[in-house]
Amino acid sequence: MGRLTKTIAGRSVEREALKTQEERLWKLCHAPFTFCMRCICSMSVTVTDHPSADKLSVILTLVNTILDGIRVVELTEALAGPYCAMLLGDLGADVIKVERPGVGDQSRTWGPPFVGGESAYFLAANRNKRSIALNYDHPRGAEAFKKLLAGADIFIHNQPSLASLQKRGIEPETLCAKNPRLIYCSITGYGFTGPKAGMPGYDILAQAGTGVMSFTGEPDGGPMRYPIAIADMTCGMYGAMGILAALFAREKTGHGQVIDMALFDSQLTWIANVGSSYLNAGASPKRWGNAHPNIVPYEVFRGSDDRYFVVGVGTDALWKKFVVALGAQNEIGDDGRFATNAERIQNRAILVPLLQSIFAKKTAAAWLEKFAAAEIPAAPINTVAEALGDAQTHARGLIVQLEHPTVGTAKSIANPIRFSTTPVSYRLPPPLLGEQTAEILRSLGYSAEDLRTMRQAGADDGTADSAQNRT
Hints:
By secondary structure, this protein is α/β, with parallel strands linked by helices. It is built from 19 helices and 17 strands. The strands form five sheets. A six-stranded parallel sheet has the order 9-6-5-10-11-12, with helices on both faces.
């Protein structure tokens, strides 16, 4: 953690006259413990007074929250939008999740498993957020929503109907005209343009429509869906990347912009290499199961204990080391049919069974130990439990633990970005539905009486503000 120390001579300085850098630091000392800097970092301030020396020492310690002071208003559900917003929250942004009263994000019901009344699915993508339950179709709710948007740096939504957005006055043209610095990010199935614009989109539709499923699976099987929501997560990551780039552009232009993200577009990036083969050579991919179309051996094998592992022999130099580690120089090392990768591909059907017969003589652990010693890329096929319990997982701090009011300790997979001086931060557990409604409305200038009136009118769900119960 970097440190910057400044000493300001003189104790009695008129705050209204502060103009120099040192004097501005004095002002910062009278701000809250953490404060925002537009130069993408924040600091915490400790003040030490030394009357005998008649000096004030101001020690500024970097707090390492890159997006401190950036407010995100998130009107999304499921995974792509929530994941995008969570990534920004991990970087220090203040993320306010707007949810439907009494219902909330649809992923709150996606279970089992449920823990403490919350779905594990929802817990996965909603840390570092505050939740406001707001009926934005009610006049008072709509008023509060627009006040919230007026102070936002970023607005993320996943409503595919442009007509619906226009009805509520939250389409890009209206919001960006009112707030020219706003970065408006739409995440939908197919985007705002093209013949499929406005159609509903789920991850499985994107996997199917982009061709990914057509070449996924065993050679003699049918199309196969990836068992995780790769379109959603990819779109969320690209969305966050676009937002960060737009924030950087705003520093130069002073203006925000509209980002039109689509699950279809994002998923199509997954066929980059096979797409290039088709576009440039007319070659269509086929299903290879766990094998690689261009490298042999590069697939799954099984030891004598029926434990599976993978080996990736990506070069001919590695092949020679691999053969030595196998102790199979005479059996396959001197066989010209396997001398080069091109020849191994041509003779795949002969080589792979030979390798499997060798692997069947020892346990998977024994082979992995040999390969590690020989620096040959190989790994066990872990279960999820084994992966989360792996020493590497814990050494890298890849499991986040946050205290939650009903769950106890809410655990999630950490953000994989490793900054040297401004690391990601984990401040808030996934919120209960509307948990910070009162807190957020008060910050918008609503009084206690206003909150009661809105509650009675159905503009919010009346969820008590329990933020003060958090430690």
